[in-house]
Amino acid sequence: MGLELLVAAAVFALLMTASIGTMLTYSKLPVHHRQDETNTVVRLVANIFVVMTSLVFGLMINSSKNTFGEIDKNVHAFATQIILLDRTLRTYGLEATETRKRLQNYVEKALTNPARTAPDPLVKSDRTSEFALNAVGDSLSLIRPSDPGHIALWNDARQQYQRIVEQRWVIVEQSEGVIPRPLISMLTAWLTLIFASFGYRAPRNTIVVLMFSISALLISLSIFVVLDMDIPFSGWIQISDTPLRRALAELQQ
């Protein structure tokens, strides 16, 4: 079970406990805690946190959306650079055949990972992925161009390879998520306080409990979606590997 799902489940449990617990214990409170003036103050304080929660949650949604969109754009650019390098090597001629094979092998390893459907190994910061990409650069370095035309193509290929390496590390650095965990804890505390205020003086009936349950579930799912999008190479919502599959198809032609 992923951390995002655990957080969503914890939020749901806290919201239900706060709302139902407050509703059940209201009648047991001292009389002066059940006065209209007290209820008015509780509602006013809850309204303050409703506004703050809306603003913070809106910022979290925008942040995760931007992270997901930026990495998706970089994955497309990454795949494009791979295709361009292959085109340059193909133009170079037979001497670049081994480099093209290593480049194709690099993409194939990422896309045939049985545990994942997203292009995680292509951008993951691990030694295997790094070695596979380094092998492309090593093979390219062994090529010895013999005329000005091939020298120009070789220099272009070297530049394209460097851009691929840089693009990979950009994606690696972006893939860890940007939403601070303390912010999630603070948002959860605010939501718990708001739901506790909802349960204060709420009538004890099935409709009220059902509304509390549905509201808590939808809010928990919203938090889950935001956190899942913030880490786009794991979880249920992942960056599509279609650009890299398209690049592999181009390499195999």
UniProtKB/TrEMBL annotation:
Pfam families: Bestrophin-like (PF14023). InterPro entries: DUF4239. The chain crosses the membrane at residues 40-61, 183-200, 206-227. Keywords: Membrane, Transmembrane, Transmembrane helix. This is Transmembrane protein. It comes from Rhizobium grahamii CCGE 502.
